[in-house]
Amino acid sequence: MPNELSIGEVAERTGLSVHALRFYERENLLLAPVRRTAGGRRAYTEQDVDWLAICTRLRDSGMPLADLRAFAALVREGPGNEEQRLALLRGHRNRVQAQLAELRSCLDLITWKVGVYEQRVAEGTATGVWDPTAGGDAAARG
């Protein structure tokens, strides 16, 4: 069949390992069962590659496997469940936005600490920064 891709080709194109591709298949995360060649080898399609790209981005962003499984099942069912799909995606978006807010807060602290250390190093006053034996106010020491 034209445009069939081997598991190795799909692994190379998606960045997933062969083991991960087999896991996605076992976990029923693909839109359709992977076709097998006469020799028993997996034969993927471009649609499989496109779907795997979506799945990996959702997983990379922290979507729980159960939610991804549910989303894939809804997509496989076809039209008529778009509201359910939307609810899953909105819930995930909300979690990602909360994670981003937490990371921004962490980045703000790190940026402040970098500024303190840069200033202390430039002034030559970095000795004793966060030295518990130096005494005094730890926050003032940097």
From TrEMBL:
Q: Which InterPro entries match?
A: DNA-bd_dom_put_sf (IPR009061), MerR-type_HTH_dom (IPR000551), MerR_fam (IPR047057)
Q: Name one GO molecular function term.
A: DNA binding
Pfam families from the xrefs? MerR_1
Q: Where is the HTH merR-type domain?
A: 4-74
User: Which terms are listed as keywords in the entry?
Assistant: DNA-binding
**Superkingdom of this protein's organism:** Bacteria
Q: What is this protein called?
A: DNA-binding transcriptional regulator, MerR family
Q: What is the originating organism of this protein?
A: Saccharopolyspora flava
